[in-house]
Amino acid sequence: EALDSAKAFDFSRGVINASHWLASLEYEVGNYEAATEYINLALDYYRTNDQASGEVAMLTQLGRIQLAEGHYSRAERLFLKASILAGKVGDLHHETQALHELGYALLLQARYEDASYYLQRAEKQASEGGFRELEMKVVSKLGTLNFIQGNFDKGQQLRRRAEVFQDSLFNSDVQRKIG
């Protein structure tokens, strides 16, 4: 209803918010077709209103849908496009997120050298940007990559590092809620 009302009153921000929210809900329950429809609607509004960061977020979400459906090459292209656009507009967080997803898509395709390149870039940017939760995810994927490549010691080091990140994020969240 919110989406229909926003459209009726030509309320662009409302259409974007409703579409983005509905796309997330549909994605979470595995209804990728509906999620894609909502994402495309949001993309139209983001592009019409020249909001590159929103466009990047939607491209990344489309890439996740492609990954979930096993279309790794399509996902790769969407993540690459999202990372380039985010870089052009100086959106370090979304660029780092897209690089992380791109590295994961390449990992799933057994393109380990390329996966390593993008995951390492994402790790560096996440660290420099202070994106601790994202850095934890990237480090975990790098650990997995190293295990797959037979670098068990390095893989174990990275997995332990990801666990330390996770524990510290959990502890700071608990402290924030308590205190």
Any overview of this molecule?
With 179 residues, the protein is mainly α. Helices cover 87% and strands 0% of the residues. It contains 9 helices and no strands. The radius of gyration is 18 Å and the shape is globular. The model has no long low-confidence stretch (mean pLDDT 89).
Key traits:
single chain; 179 residues; mainly alpha; 0% strand; globular
By DSSP (H or I, 4+ residues per run), the number of helices equals 9
Q: Whole-number radius of gyration?
A: 18 Å
End-to-end C-alpha gap: 39 Å
Assign a percent range to the helix content. Answer: over 70%
Q: List low-confidence stretches.
A: none
Q: What is the ordering of alpha helices and beta strands?
A: HHHHHHHHH
Largest sheet report: none
Strand content is under 5%
Secondary-structure content class: mainly alpha
Query: What's the pLDDT, averaged over the residues?
Result: 89
Instruction: Count every beta strand, where a strand is a DSSP E run of 2 or more residues.
Output: 0
**Judging from the principal axes of the Cα atoms, what is the shape?**
globular
